[in-house]
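Board work, copied verbatim: Hydrolase, haloacid dehalogenase-like family
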Amino acid sequence: MKKAIIFDMDGTLFQTNLILEPALSATFDVLRTKGLWQGETPIAQYREIMGVTLPVVWETLCPMHTLEVREASNVLFHEKLIELIRNGKGALYPNAEQTLATLANDYHLYIASNGQKEYLQAIVETYKLNRFIEGTYSIQSIPSGHKSDLVRSVIEANAIQAGTVVGDRSSDIQAARDNQLFSIGVRFDFAQESELQKAHIVINNLQEIPSALATIL
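↓ predict structure ↓
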Protein backbone atom coordinates (compact mmCIF):
# COMPACT_ATOMS: atom_id res chain seq x y z
CA MET A 1 0.00 0.00 0.00
CA LYS A 2 1.38 3.39 -1.01
CA LYS A 3 1.40 5.59 2.09
CA ALA A 4 2.02 9.30 1.81
CA ILE A 5 2.35 12.44 3.87
CA ILE A 6 1.13 15.67 2.33
CA PHE A 7 2.58 18.78 3.96
CA ASP A 8 1.34 22.32 3.91
CA MET A 9 4.20 24.80 3.41
CA ASP A 10 3.51 28.15 5.11
CA GLY A 11 3.38 27.88 8.87
CA THR A 12 4.04 24.14 8.70
CA LEU A 13 7.45 23.52 7.12
CA PHE A 14 8.48 27.11 6.41
CA GLN A 15 8.55 29.95 8.95
CA THR A 16 6.69 32.43 6.78
CA ASN A 17 6.39 34.80 9.73
CA LEU A 18 10.09 35.69 9.33
CA ILE A 19 9.56 37.25 5.90
CA LEU A 20 5.88 38.17 5.96
CA GLU A 21 6.20 41.54 7.69
CA PRO A 22 9.10 42.97 5.64
CA ALA A 23 7.55 41.82 2.34
CA LEU A 24 4.11 43.14 3.21
CA SER A 25 5.54 46.42 4.54
CA ALA A 26 7.50 46.97 1.33
CA THR A 27 4.37 46.30 -0.73
CA PHE A 28 2.22 48.74 1.22
CA ASP A 29 4.99 51.36 1.14
CA VAL A 30 4.62 51.31 -2.65
CA LEU A 31 0.84 51.58 -2.35
CA ARG A 32 1.25 54.60 -0.07
CA THR A 33 3.58 56.37 -2.50
CA LYS A 34 0.93 55.88 -5.19
CA GLY A 35 -1.78 57.27 -2.94
CA LEU A 36 -3.55 53.92 -2.81
CA TRP A 37 -3.21 53.28 0.93
CA GLN A 38 -3.34 55.24 4.16
CA GLY A 39 -2.63 54.06 7.66
CA GLU A 40 -0.70 51.09 9.00
CA THR A 41 0.27 47.98 7.06
CA PRO A 42 -2.41 45.32 7.87
CA ILE A 43 0.04 42.70 9.09
CA ALA A 44 -2.14 41.48 11.97
CA GLN A 45 -5.07 41.04 9.62
CA TYR A 46 -2.95 38.98 7.23
CA ARG A 47 -1.75 36.75 10.05
CA GLU A 48 -5.36 36.00 10.96
CA ILE A 49 -6.23 34.82 7.45
CA MET A 50 -2.91 33.13 6.67
CA GLY A 51 -3.58 30.01 4.65
CA VAL A 52 -6.39 31.33 2.45
CA THR A 53 -5.85 31.69 -1.29
CA LEU A 54 -4.11 34.80 -2.57
CA PRO A 55 -7.13 36.35 -4.31
CA VAL A 56 -8.95 36.17 -0.97
CA VAL A 57 -5.94 37.71 0.78
CA TRP A 58 -6.00 40.82 -1.37
CA GLU A 59 -9.80 41.07 -1.40
CA THR A 60 -9.67 41.02 2.41
CA LEU A 61 -6.75 43.40 2.89
CA CYS A 62 -7.70 45.85 0.13
CA PRO A 63 -11.45 45.59 -0.52
CA MET A 64 -11.54 49.08 -2.03
CA HIS A 65 -8.91 48.32 -4.69
CA THR A 66 -9.65 47.23 -8.24
CA LEU A 67 -8.74 43.74 -9.39
CA GLU A 68 -5.90 45.23 -11.43
CA VAL A 69 -4.39 46.96 -8.39
CA ARG A 70 -4.75 43.82 -6.26
CA GLU A 71 -3.01 41.71 -8.88
CA ALA A 72 -0.17 44.24 -9.14
CA SER A 73 0.16 44.25 -5.34
CA ASN A 74 0.33 40.47 -5.31
CA VAL A 75 3.09 40.46 -7.93
CA LEU A 76 5.15 42.97 -5.95
CA PHE A 77 4.52 41.11 -2.69
CA HIS A 78 5.78 37.86 -4.18
CA GLU A 79 8.83 39.50 -5.66
CA LYS A 80 9.72 40.72 -2.16
CA LEU A 81 9.00 37.32 -0.58
CA ILE A 82 11.17 35.47 -3.09
CA GLU A 83 13.97 38.01 -2.71
CA LEU A 84 13.95 37.53 1.06
CA ILE A 85 13.93 33.73 0.68
CA ARG A 86 16.85 33.77 -1.76
CA ASN A 87 18.76 36.07 0.60
CA GLY A 88 18.38 33.62 3.48
CA LYS A 89 15.98 35.70 5.57
CA GLY A 90 13.50 32.86 6.05
CA ALA A 91 13.95 29.47 7.73
CA LEU A 92 12.41 26.04 8.02
CA TYR A 93 10.89 25.17 11.37
CA PRO A 94 13.19 23.43 13.88
CA ASN A 95 13.85 19.77 13.08
CA ALA A 96 12.17 20.04 9.67
CA GLU A 97 15.07 18.61 7.66
CA GLN A 98 15.80 15.79 10.10
CA THR A 99 12.13 14.85 10.27
CA LEU A 100 11.70 14.87 6.49
CA ALA A 101 14.82 12.74 6.09
CA THR A 102 13.47 10.19 8.58
CA LEU A 103 9.99 10.10 7.06
CA ALA A 104 11.29 9.76 3.50
CA ASN A 105 12.61 6.31 4.40
CA ASP A 106 9.08 4.97 4.91
CA TYR A 107 6.65 7.36 3.22
CA HIS A 108 6.17 9.26 -0.02
CA LEU A 109 6.34 12.96 0.82
CA TYR A 110 4.54 15.79 -1.00
CA ILE A 111 3.78 19.47 -0.50
CA ALA A 112 0.34 20.93 -1.22
CA SER A 113 0.17 24.67 -0.68
CA ASN A 114 -1.97 27.72 -1.33
CA GLY A 115 1.25 29.52 -2.28
CA GLN A 116 2.21 30.43 -5.83
CA LYS A 117 4.46 28.11 -7.85
CA GLU A 118 7.44 30.48 -8.04
CA TYR A 119 7.29 31.16 -4.32
CA LEU A 120 7.15 27.47 -3.45
CA GLN A 121 9.96 26.70 -5.86
CA ALA A 122 12.14 29.34 -4.20
CA ILE A 123 11.71 27.61 -0.84
CA VAL A 124 12.26 24.13 -2.27
CA GLU A 125 15.42 25.22 -4.06
CA THR A 126 16.84 27.30 -1.20
CA TYR A 127 16.50 24.47 1.32
CA LYS A 128 17.03 21.62 -1.18
CA LEU A 129 13.76 20.00 -0.15
CA ASN A 130 13.76 17.81 -3.26
CA ARG A 131 16.09 15.54 -1.29
CA PHE A 132 12.96 14.43 0.55
CA ILE A 133 9.90 15.75 -1.29
CA GLU A 134 8.69 13.89 -4.38
CA GLY A 135 6.38 16.63 -5.62
CA THR A 136 5.29 20.18 -4.83
CA TYR A 137 1.77 21.24 -5.78
CA SER A 138 0.35 24.77 -5.89
CA ILE A 139 -3.25 25.88 -5.64
CA GLN A 140 -2.65 27.72 -8.92
CA SER A 141 -3.29 24.43 -10.72
CA ILE A 142 -6.76 24.08 -9.17
CA PRO A 143 -9.61 26.07 -10.79
CA SER A 144 -11.79 25.91 -7.66
CA GLY A 145 -9.05 27.30 -5.42
CA HIS A 146 -9.99 24.79 -2.70
CA LYS A 147 -7.33 23.01 -0.66
CA SER A 148 -9.42 19.84 -0.61
CA ASP A 149 -9.33 19.70 -4.41
CA LEU A 150 -5.59 20.32 -4.40
CA VAL A 151 -5.00 17.42 -2.02
CA ARG A 152 -7.29 15.25 -4.14
CA SER A 153 -5.17 16.05 -7.19
CA VAL A 154 -2.02 14.97 -5.32
CA ILE A 155 -3.70 11.69 -4.36
CA GLU A 156 -4.84 10.98 -7.90
CA ALA A 157 -1.57 11.99 -9.57
CA ASN A 158 0.46 9.70 -7.32
CA ALA A 159 -1.94 6.79 -6.75
CA ILE A 160 -1.87 7.35 -3.00
CA GLN A 161 -3.83 4.71 -1.08
CA ALA A 162 -3.43 5.94 2.48
CA GLY A 163 -1.92 8.98 4.10
CA THR A 164 -1.89 12.00 6.32
CA VAL A 165 -2.11 15.75 5.80
CA VAL A 166 0.12 17.88 8.03
CA GLY A 167 -0.83 21.53 8.37
CA ASP A 168 -1.63 24.45 10.62
CA ARG A 169 -5.00 25.73 9.41
CA SER A 170 -8.57 24.48 9.07
CA SER A 171 -8.22 24.19 5.29
CA ASP A 172 -5.52 21.54 5.77
CA ILE A 173 -7.56 19.58 8.29
CA GLN A 174 -10.68 19.80 6.15
CA ALA A 175 -8.73 18.69 3.08
CA ALA A 176 -7.67 15.57 4.95
CA ARG A 177 -11.25 14.86 6.03
CA ASP A 178 -12.67 15.43 2.55
CA ASN A 179 -10.17 12.95 1.11
CA GLN A 180 -10.45 10.29 3.82
CA LEU A 181 -6.94 10.96 5.13
CA PHE A 182 -5.68 11.43 8.67
CA SER A 183 -4.71 14.91 9.83
CA ILE A 184 -1.90 16.21 12.01
CA GLY A 185 -2.23 19.81 13.16
CA VAL A 186 0.89 21.80 13.98
CA ARG A 187 0.68 24.36 16.76
CA PHE A 188 2.93 26.97 15.15
CA ASP A 189 2.81 30.70 14.41
CA PHE A 190 -0.45 31.02 12.47
CA ALA A 191 -2.36 28.15 14.07
CA GLN A 192 -5.62 28.72 15.92
CA GLU A 193 -6.70 26.37 18.68
CA SER A 194 -10.31 26.26 17.52
CA GLU A 195 -9.14 24.94 14.15
CA LEU A 196 -6.57 22.51 15.53
CA GLN A 197 -9.22 20.78 17.64
CA LYS A 198 -10.56 19.18 14.47
CA ALA A 199 -7.26 17.39 13.69
CA HIS A 200 -6.71 13.75 14.65
CA ILE A 201 -3.47 14.67 16.43
CA VAL A 202 -1.88 18.02 17.33
CA ILE A 203 1.88 18.43 17.71
CA ASN A 204 4.20 21.20 18.91
CA ASN A 205 7.34 20.11 17.06
CA LEU A 206 7.84 18.42 13.71
CA GLN A 207 9.99 15.73 15.29
CA GLU A 208 6.81 14.39 16.92
CA ILE A 209 5.43 13.31 13.53
CA PRO A 210 7.02 9.82 13.31
CA SER A 211 5.61 8.73 16.66
CA ALA A 212 2.25 10.33 15.84
CA LEU A 213 2.08 8.42 12.57
CA ALA A 214 2.72 5.17 14.38
CA THR A 215 -0.63 5.58 16.12
CA ILE A 216 -2.71 6.40 13.04
CA LEU A 217 -1.13 4.73 10.00
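The two ends are 11 Å apart (CA to CA).
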